[in-house]
Amino acid sequence: DVSGRGVGMDVVKRNIQKMGGHVEIQSKQGTGTTIRILLPLTLAILDGMSVRVADEVFILPLNAVMESLQPREADLHPLAGGERVLEVRGEYLPIVELWKVFNVAGAKT
Hints:
- By secondary structure, the protein is of the alpha+beta class.
- The chain folds into two domains: 7-43, no CATH class; 46-101, no CATH class.
- The protein has helices at residues 7-18, 41-44, 98-101, and strands at 22-28, 32-38, 48-53, 56-61, 76-78, 84-88, 91-94.
- A hairpin with a 2-residue loop joins strand 3 and strand 4.
- The longest helix is centred in the N-terminal third of the chain and has 12 residues, at 7-18.
- Residues 45-109 form the CheW-like domain.
- Involved in the transmission of sensory signals from the chemoreceptors to the flagellar motors. CheA is autophosphorylated; it can transfer its phosphate group to either CheB or CheY.
- It is an enzyme of class 2 (transferase).
């Protein structure tokens, strides 16, 4: 049985090609299909900052990190609806809870 029109793989192929890579697909009747995604090594090397969320470790690209700090409990302020903001140098910044972003069960905030 064959289904689909390959639209999803076409999107994958275009995005990988934009990054300078390519996709190889090999099929053997009765055995299955092998899909290889090849990307330039330069995409695998980037500066990052590791962060721990519960028992999980994630790497955030440094070009996406503006500042890293250890907030004091006194600088955290609750808002309606259970959200919180962080006071930094007189400004109130929204808190992005990584356990929610990465869907990590059992994490503490």
